[in-house]
Design a protein that fits this description.
By secondary structure, the protein is mainly β. Helices cover 0% and strands 43% of the residues. The chain contains no helices and 16 strands. Strands 1-2-3-4 form a four-stranded antiparallel beta sheet, with no helix packed on it. Strands 5-6-7-8 form a four-stranded antiparallel beta sheet, with no helix packed on it. Strand 11 and strand 12 form a beta hairpin.
């Protein structure tokens, strides 16, 4: 067990070297009472053995939720980045030491960002469709058709970076997950994987 408190910890993501984790937390302490108000969520980094807990984001007001962090693969220069959703403001990028925080996709419609295997782009849900974006906020392109009355979300990349698998909700209320689909990361025809 890594954290010991009465509040919620969610969305863990490993660092590239496997030594640390980033996660969304509703508590600023690894143990003992939680002093921050609710509702809110901030990003926290912790060593894999449960030590070295550090709060990565720190906003002074409640009603801001930092969730769905994804730690990038190691880049050519040895660095890495963390992409996450800040509700209600959009998709953000931050360095593992807490520096360089930037809103790269403003608005409340970005969900579930996930890095490509090379760490040079990420896929996410944008306005209920699937999109890919560069870490600097450029190069946004849709992988699935817009405005088709379904919700395409929770993307995951193939190890070779050529494909993205995702969930498709045919129910706009997201009550039932109907199907898995796969699409090329460069966009193209997509295929249904199951018939549940």
């Amino acid at each position: 067990r890594l954290t010991f408190h009465t509040r919620q910890d969610t969305d863990p993501s490993w660092s590239p070297d496997g030594d640390r984790l980033v996660f969304s937390s509703r508590c600023v302490s690894a143990s003992g009472p939680c002093y921050h108000g609710e509702p809110y969520a901030e990003l926290t980094v912790i060593d894999a053995d449960g030590s070295g807990l550090v709060r990565l984001t720190n906003h002074p007001t409640i009603d801001i939720f930092d969730t769905q962090p994804a730690w990038s693969p190691e880049l050519a220069d040895g660095s890495s980045r963390i992409v996450f959703r800040r509700q209600p403001f959009g998709i953000f990028l931050i360095a593992p030491d807490g520096s360089g925080e930037a809103n790269i996709a403003p608005g409340s419609t970005g969900w579930a960002p996930t890095w490509s295997p090379d760490g040079l782009s990420f896929a996410f849900e944008k306005n209920q469709d699937l999109a890919v974006m560069n870490p600097d906020g450029t190069g946004v392109h849709l992988l699935t058709p817009p405005g088709d009355g379904v919700i395409d979300t929770v993307p995951s990349w193939s190890p070779d970076g050529l494909w993205v698998v995702f969930l498709r909700y045919n129910d706009p209320n997201q009550i039932v997950v109907n199907d898995l689909y796969v699409v090329r990361a460069t966009r193209g025809p997509f295929a249904r994987l199951n018939t549940a």
